[in-house]
Amino acid sequence: MKKLGFGCMRFPLLDENDPKSIDFEQVERMLDIFLEKGFLYVDTAYPYHEGESEKAVKKALVERYPRTSFRLADKLPTFNLKEEADCPRIFQEQLEKTGVSYFDYYLIHCLTKDLYETAKKCKAFEFVQTMKEEGKVKEFGFSFHDTPEKLDEILSDHPEVDFVQLQINYLDWEAENVQSRACYEVARKHGKEIVIMEPIKGGSLIDLPKEIEADLRKADPEQDNASWAIRFAASLPGVRMVLSGMSSLEQMLDNISFMENFVPMSEEEQKIVLEAGEKIRKTVAIPCTGCEYCVAGCSQNIWIPEYFKLYNERQRTLSKGHDKAYDQAIQTHGKASDCIECHQCERMCPQHLPIVESLKKVSESFE
Asked: Would you say 226 and 206 are in contact if contact means Cβ atoms under 8 Å apart?
């Protein structure tokens, strides 16, 4: 397969403030071109777009194309598991929502130290292995957000998994909170193929500081920021797929332009982009990817990723030009200062960010 996968976490929207308002006309056009160009891998999950992503895949893809013309990945949501019976119940619901009789790839979603314990309690690994034996899952893996030591433990406990999905990008390669490089090396040690998520870190590797973007342009005027990020991830040995949450037709066409006939990075290119990552890390106040896992369970309806994005922009530009955007956002969402410090968001955060303390900074800055 070609190495670019269509991530269904960030579909284009008709209303930017409503993650359920998926722009089906644009999504269908994007999928038409994606498949026409020979790409196959489509990745969805139970919580994406507040539960609407799987339904969108059914409408825009499954009902419009033969089942053999694409490869579909879905995930068992560990954060929704309470008991063993939840595994078959949710799996059946996902088959119905997507309209398929089997998944090409099925993952246990978002394993962390705590969620691995949930998976063990609910016998999630045993369940997915059974689904594979019954032909309802072709390949079995898990997505991961924790330390390399924990990854090593899980892969030692479960050598039966076919692949692992990791957050890898040149910004997080040496980042202490993600440890992309170390996790990658653990997966390789266990002989597992790797699917990469967040190669552009939620879009944050597109809008780069001007001086860093200038350095990349000087190194290669033909490459844009997305190309540097996705090609870095796709060039790593053992990587079978790089997922991109493409939220517009323009983004997808750009990604296809350099991934249709993919050329791996040279050692010099890798050196250039990793040096850029070191510089960028010093400019990012809150390394949020905008995945919105923290938002769904927030009792105060605080738009955490958007506020962090605005805060990062303010810190980077030293400008108060984002006050209006914040004032507009709090018309439909809770303010940063509305946080009651329940820490539910931090338990859900794949980046392990100190969200509560960061919201205090946002409040001080904008309110």
From this structure: yes
- Paired residues of 166 in beta bridges: 144, 196
pLDDT of residue 137: 98
CA angle (169, 224, 240) in 5-degree steps: 40
Beta partners for residue 141, in sequence order: 107, 163
Single-letter code of the amino acid located at 56: A
φ and ψ at 196, to 5 degrees?
A: -105, 130
Residue 292 to residue 280: CA distance in whole angstroms: 22
- Say which residue the tokens 């790797």 belong to: 194
Query: Model confidence over 157-190: pLDDT tens digits?
Result: 999 999 999 999 999 999 888 999 999 999 999 9
Torsion of CA 307, 309, 311, 314, to 10 degrees: -140
Residue segments in the chain with a per-residue pLDDT below the cut of 70: 317-321
Predicted local confidence at residue 204, as pLDDT: 85
pLDDT at res. 321 = 66
pLDDT at 129: 98
Name the amino acid, one letter, at 20: K
